[in-house]
Amino acid sequence: MVAKHEIQADFLQAVGQATRLRILEVLAGGERCVCDIQVAVGEQQSNVSKHLAILRRSGILTARREGGRVIYRLRNGRISEFLRWLSGVTPRDFFGDET
Question: What is the pLDDT of residues 15-57, one digit of tens each?
Fold first, then answer.
């Protein structure tokens, strides 16, 4: 059995990159194809595809084919809850006021 903290660390490692967080924010609004995600995050499609693969392998995203397009969505609605919580976090919350 994998320890709870290892699972949590794997999740944080998967989401702990700025482009991946932007991708998750886009997908929190609903499923999207790679081309739409690429435009929304302002990155090259190859870079977006690399990050989508990481998120998919980690189990955070699911994908399905629709014609020639791949459509991605969040696997679990709790990811959206996590993103809302994270958007309210500031460095001061963890490190205090550095004045």
Answer: 999 999 999 999 999 999 999 999 999 999 999 999 999 999 9
Domain architecture of the chain: domains with CATH: 14-90 (1.10.10.10)
- Burial-class residue 11 by CB neighbours within 10 Å (0-12, 13-18, 19+): middle
Give pTM, 2 decimals: 0.86
Query: DSSP characters for 11-63?
Result: HHHHH-SHHHHHHHHHHHT--EEHHHHHHHHT--HHHHHHHHHHHHHTTSEEE
How far apart are alpha carbons 17 and 57 in whole angstroms? 15
Six token digits for residue 75:
């696997």
DSSP 73: E
